[in-house]
Amino acid sequence: RSNAQKFEFQAEVSRLMDILINSLYSNKDIFLRELISNASDALDKIRFLSLTDKEILGEGDTAKLDIQIKLDKEKKILSIRDRGIGMTKEDLIKNLGTIAKSGTSAFVEKVQTSGDLNLIGQFGVGFYSVYLVADYVEVISKHNDDKQHVWESKADGAFAISEDTWNEPLGRGTEIRLHLRDEAGEYLEESKLKELVKKYSEFINFPIYLWASKEVDVEVPADEDDESSESSYEEESKDDDAEKSEDEEEKPKTKTVKETTYEWELLNDVKAIWLRNPKDVSDEEYTKFYHSLAKDFGDEKPLSWSHFNAEGDVEFKARVFISDEFDELLPKYLSFLKGLVDSDTLPLNVSREMLQQHSSLRTIKKKLIRKALDMIRKIADEDPDESTDKDKKDEVSSDNDEKKGQYAKFWNEFGKSIKLGIIEDATNRNRLAKLLRFETSKSEGKLTSLDQYISRMKSGQKDIFYITGTNKEQLEKSPFLERLRKKNFEVIYFTDPVDEYLMQYLMDYEDKKFQNVSKEGLKIGKDAKAKELKESFKDLTKWWKSALSSENVDDVKISNRLDNTPCVVVTSKFGWSANMERIMQSQTL
Ligand code: ADP
Ligand code: MG
């Protein structure tokens, strides 16, 4: 086309397209999932903007938020059209070719090693999956802020953009036209498309229509050539009062023939899963919903979920879909959760910034955190491996094998996030501390919790003992533990660098103080001879202190913390532990 402007794909994108176009990957169906997902995203965007500006939707058909699929068998074109936000010329250039997303090269690498394309959407390059089935693709798009443009490419390293002066105006939105390859003919079958849309649109909240053929019975004159007979029938049928005898004698002068007509057929049920009663939603449906929400189409199941209706000051109920672009709904430390909040309490006609500061949003956030932490706690409660009670353990495990080991799995993946939460979220610190897991001098390589530690505390033990270091092996050899071990006290091993920071925030738990056993202030029960010893070694400790000078040590004391080792260097109460010094040094290097 004469007015077309040519562009080259960014190198990584070009490489990705090469791989796709030559791919032998068998599950090519996924391209439709990606296109529907993009259409749905684009519709969400315009709907979101319309919350604060109704005008933006336009009038008539343009305001209809739907997705339309059409087939052209002769030209072998499959087109998917949405009335979403659309793309300006600049958007087309950037989004479809010149700017590589961060996931592009990661995905290319993954495909080259595994050959698996299913996760393409998660890497932010789902659009290019169209080249699994098409060798030429046109993207026609109209954004409110620009004229209609056409993007086109044959996946030969380049694409072209032209102002659209020949296609039907879209009003607003995007139409993707796939010129299918010969071997992709199945995507021109209505039945195939219906099946795929059903599979991929379960949680799409916009209607998806197919321009579907329909066989209808039509009455046509029995003998179309005979003009006189047709007109005589019409005359008679108009005459309602015609005598019965005449009617009976009359032979039917029309016949029924099959005719193909086309109409928009709705393919999905748009009733949102979150509006249904949690009791009526199956585990399988939740799993599928998670896959669609998280764009995670691997085999992974969600570890757990929580579905609730909040009532009271803020109702989360039907109507407004709050965009997941609100980072404010969950704190960073819970960002591994995927979710959806639906509320009609939020005001519609305020700016986004104001919406973010709205008090309902804070209430929602508070409740979401609470529910999330409850949910995580439940994973632990239902995990037979977590139970210390032997009888209960057997009982639980026999009928709940599936939940076995789930908490350890969670902890390995997201333990760091929980620790981050303890540091950042003072309000929920205690709830989060309940979720902590660690090894101890007595846990025999297994993970244990603070509650379990407390249940094993010796009578008269006031503090929770812990020690920090690089690894368990190193800590086990520490002279700081000699005496404690001999006296049968349990000591927590904190071996993650973040633990040092964690313990600056976690001062106590259930009225028990935390005591770093490598620091000053360790009290191991009462020692009757303490005073006497202190007195008799007074001269020695004084001599040591002056010999080492105040630059090197604060004090030299008699202590009952050791057993075999004659002396040990202890950190002052408010100073950094030796481990912390090590961490800080490694950070500055
Ligand atoms: P992702 O959807 O993860 O961002 P894609 O490769 O599927 O990655 O799409 C790339 C980008 O192209 C999208 O982020 C969006 O900006 C744009 N885009 C794709 N399809 C549409 C559409 N139907 N309407 C508007 N924009 C679209
Ligand atoms: Mg996408």
Low-confidence runs (pLDDT<50, min 5 residues)?
A: 234-239, 320-325
Radius of gyration, taken over Cα atoms and rounded to an integer in Å: 35 Å
Query: Multimeric state of these chains?
Result: single chain
**Could you tell me the strand content as a percent range?**
5-15%
Strands of the widest sheet, in order across it, are 1-6-5-4-7-3-2-8-9
> Can you count the beta strands?
14
Structural class: alpha+beta
The hetero molecules present are: adenosine-5'-diphosphate, magnesium ion
| N-end to C-end Cα span | 59 Å
If helices are DSSP runs of H or I spanning 4 or more residues, what is the number of helices? 20
Helix content: 25-40%
Biggest sheet: strands, sense, closure?
9 strands, mixed
Average pLDDT for all residues: 86
Overall 3D shape? elongated
Family: Belongs to the heat shock protein 90 family.
Keywords: ATP-binding, Chaperone, Nucleotide-binding, Signal, Stress response
Protein name: Heat shock protein 90
Q: What's the helix and strand layout?
A:
Blueprint: E1 5-8, H1 11-21, H2 30-52, E2 67-72, E3 77-82, H3 89-98, H4 103-114, E4 134-142, E5 149-153, E6 158-163, E7 173-180, H5 190-200, E8 208-221, H6 227-238, H7 244-249, E9 254-266, H8 283-294, H9 352-357, H10 359-381, H11 390-399, H12 406-424, H13 429-434, E10 439-440, H14 450-455, E11 464-468, H15 472-476, H16 482-486, E12 492-494, H17 497-505, E13 508-509, E14 512-516, H18 530-536, H19 538-552, H20 578-588
Parallel strand pairs: 2-8, 11-12, 11-14
Antiparallel strand pairs: 1-6, 2-3, 3-7, 4-5, 4-7, 5-6, 8-9, 10-12, 13-14
Helix pairs in contact: 1-4, 12-17
Adenosine-5'-diphosphate binds at residues 34, 38-39, 41-42, 82, 84-87, 95-96, 124-127, 174.
Region (Disordered): 220-257
Organism: Stylosanthes scabra
Protein name: Heat shock protein 90
